[in-house]
Every structure is written in structure tokens, then in C-alpha cells.
């Protein structure tokens, strides 16, 4: 249990504050920015903040099930990035821009 002693020496409230701040930054980035690549990065930031909090709770509880769930969330996030980058590449190929305001022109 030597690996958990360092994580458990930091109060759980600090992890909650850090993860809340990271999640809020991600939400702010998604709402404010218009670049599709930055929006994709902000979504990843939100997913990673949830992963960090889940791993912290799992460590404090002493159960490994939360860390297994983090692994599955990371797999889904990797698939999301692959699909998102493919969509962004097609958007850039057709419009020569990654600005999401161009999607308004695609409506019929």
C-alpha cells in the first residue's frame, strides 16, 4: 500500500476543487471557442478531470473498480478523438477552415 500513501496524504477536498476547476475550464472552452480542434481538446479536458476524480475516490476507498472504470473511459475518449479528428479533417478538406460557425451554412 505504499503507492496509496502519497495520494491519501493529500486531502480529498483538494482533488474535488482541482477537478471542478478543470471541468469548468473545459466547459468554458467548449462554450466560448469556435475552433473545432480546441473544442475537442476541451472535451478531453472534461473527461480527464472526471477520470482524475474517479481515480482519487477509488484510491481513498481502497477499491480498484474505479480505476478499471477510468481505463474504459479512456478507451471511449480515444475513440471519440479518432472520430472527431476524422470529422475535422473532412471539414477542413471541404471548407479549408476548422471554424465551427461554418456548420450553419450546411443547413438545408
TrEMBL record:
Catalytic activity, reaction form: a quinone + NADH + 5 H(+)(in) = a quinol + NAD(+) + 4 H(+)(out)
EC numbers on record: 7.1.1.-
Function: NDH-1 shuttles electrons from NADH, via FMN and iron-sulfur (Fe-S) centers, to quinones in the respiratory chain. The immediate electron acceptor for the enzyme in this species is believed to be a menaquinone. Couples the redox reaction to proton translocation (for every two electrons transferred, four hydrogen ions are translocated across the cytoplasmic membrane), and thus conserves the redox energy in a proton gradient.
UniProt subunit comment: NDH-1 is composed of 14 different subunits. Subunits NuoA, H, J, K, L, M, N constitute the membrane sector of the complex.
Family affiliation: Belongs to the complex I subunit 4L family.
Entry-linked NCBIfam families: PRK05715.1-2 (NF004320), PRK05715.1-3 (NF004321)
Stated name of the protein: NADH-quinone oxidoreductase subunit K
Organism in which the protein naturally occurs: Kaistella gelatinilytica
Amino acid at each position: 500500500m505504499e503507492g496509496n500513501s502519497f495520494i491519501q496524504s493529500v486531502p480529498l477536498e483538494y482533488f474535488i476543487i482541482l477537478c471542478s476547476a478543470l471541468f469548468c475550464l473545459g466547459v468554458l472552452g467548449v462554450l466560448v471557442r469556435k475552433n473545432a480542434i480546441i473544442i475537442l481538446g476541451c472535451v478531453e479536458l472534461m473527461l480527464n478531470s472526471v477520470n482524475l476524480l474517479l481515480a482519487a475516490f477509488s484510491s481513498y476507498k481502497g477499491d480498484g473498480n474505479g480505476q478499471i472504470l477510468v481505463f474504459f473511459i479512456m478507451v471511449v475518449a480515444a475513440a471519440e478523438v479518432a472520430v472527431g479528428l476524422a470529422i475535422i479533417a473532412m471539414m477542413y478538406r471541404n471548407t479549408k477552415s476548422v471554424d465551427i460557425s461554418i456548420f450553419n451554412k450546411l443547413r438545408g
